[in-house]
Amino acid sequence: MRADEHIPPVASTGIEGLDRILGGGITPHRMYLVEGTPGTGKTTLGLGFLLAGAAAGESGLYITLAETEIELRAVAATHGWTLDSIELFEMVPADGLGEDQEQTLLHPSEVELGETVRDIMDKVDAAKPKRIVIDSLSELRLLAQSAIRYRRQILALKHFFSTREVTVLILDDKSASGGDLQLHSIAHGVVSLEQTLSGFGAQRRRLHVMKMRGLRYRGGYHDFEIERGGLRVYPRLVAARHDGSSLADPVSTGSDQLDLLMGGGLVPGTATLLTGPAGIGKTTAAVQCMLAALKRGTKAAYFLFDERLPTLLKRSAALGLDLQPHIDSGQLTIRAIDPAEMSPGEFAGAVCSAVEKDGVRMVVIDSLNAYLQSMPSEQFLVLQMHEMLTYLGQQGVVSMLILGLHGVTGDVRQDVDLSYLSDTVVQLRFFEALGEVRQAISVIKTRTAPHERTIREFQIGKEGLQVGEALRDFQGILTGVPTFSGEGTTLMRHRPGSSAGNG
Q1: What is the CATH number of the domain that holds 314?
Q2: Which one of 32, 196, 273, 441 has the fewest beta carbons within 10 angstroms of its own beta carbon?
Q3: Global pTM?
Q4: Which three-class secondary structure string do you get for 72-121?
C-alpha cells in the first residue's frame, strides 16, 4: 500500500473563507507558496495554518529566518492565540553575530546558504512535524546571490519535504524584482496577498489563488480582512454555484393601491428598484414594504448606507412604521454600513450570511449611490450586483434596491443604470401643480406580471405611503414639467401630517 493512500483528501488552511475558495482546503504533503508585501497578513495566515493543524492533532513547526520568537508570540497574542501547541525555531541565534561565528576563507553565501538549509532539514528530522511554515524566502534569496543556486536549494528542500510527508507553507515578501516565477513553478500551489490604498478610507486587502494543482478553486480576487482571530476571507460571490428556486406567489407591499400598480405586489425571488430624487420617499416606501413582510412573519435585513440608524428609526416611527419591536425580537436586522470601511466582498459576505445563516427572506439596500463609492469603477458595481441579485433570486429572497437621482425636476440623472438588472422598476418623481410640489409614482416595468401603466399621485403621512388616483389630466409628469388640463379636484387632498417627501 502506498503512503499516499493514507493522505486525507484535503487539509484545512484554518481560514473558513479560503477553504471555501479551494473547495475544502489544500492537498496534504505538498509545498505551497504564500506571497505578499509586508503587512498583507502572511505571518497571521501561517500561524493560523499551524494552529488549525494542532487542533486536528497534527504537530506544527514554525521556522523563522526574519522575526524573533518574541515577535511571533506578540503577533499571536493580538489574535488571542497561544503558541504552546506548535514549535518555534529561530534560524538566527542570539550569539549568531559573534566573532567566533565569522569566517573569511569562503564566500559567506556559499557557507551560510548551505548551513541554513541543512539546519532546516535537521530541525525537521528532529521535530517530525506534520505541518511546517518557513518565514521567509527572502532571506534564502539574499544568501544565494544567484538564481541557479537559489533554485537548486529550493528544489532540494522540496524533495526533502516530499520524503517526510509534511505539508509546507513557504512565505515570501515579493522582494525579488519582477516576481519570482521560478518559485511559482516549483510550488504545488501559490496564493498571493495584496494590499491597496485609495484616496480616502481604510486600506483594502484581497487575495487570489494563482495556481493550485489538482484542485478546482474559485478564481479571481477575493476581499479579506485581518481581524482578531486571524484572516477573514470573503469568497467572491458566484451565483451559479447556488441552486435556484421557482418564483412564488406575490406578497403585499402593505398598500392595496401600490399592489395594484405593481401587478399584484412583490414576488419572492425578484428585485425591485426604487428610483427618484432625494427626499421623495424611496426609503419610506421600502420600509413600508418591509414592515408588511415583518407582520407576515418574514425575516428581513436592512443594509443602511445613507443615514444614521437612529434617524431612520425615529422618522419611520413618526410615520406609523415602528421598526423597533421587530429589531428587539430579532426578526429584523438593520446594519449601518460605512462604504469607506467595508469592502464589496465583505458586504456580499454579510448579505449571504443573512440569507443562509439567519434565514432572511427580504433584503433592502439603501442606497446603491453610497455602495457605488466602495467600488473602483461603475463596471465592477454592475457585475457585483448582477451576481448578488441572481443569488438572492435563486434563494427566493425579495430584494429592494434604492437608487437616488440627481436633480429634482427636468433633467434628472443617475450615477449608474441598474434598471436592466431589476425585475421591477418603480419611479418616483416630483411635479408642480397649483403652486405646490407634489409626488407621483409609476411602475416602469415588471417582468413577473402585467402592471398598471398609469402615473398616480402619492403622499407620505402618519399612515405611511398612500397612493391616490391616476393623474389623467396631466401631461409630461415624468419630465418634471407637466401641463395641467383638468381641475384641482383630481388631485389628492393633503392629510394631516403629510409632507412633500420623506427619504
Answers
A1: 3.40.50.300
A2: 196
A3: 0.83
A4: HHHHHHHCCCCCCCCEEEECCCCCCCCHHHCCCCCCHHHHHHHHHHHHHH
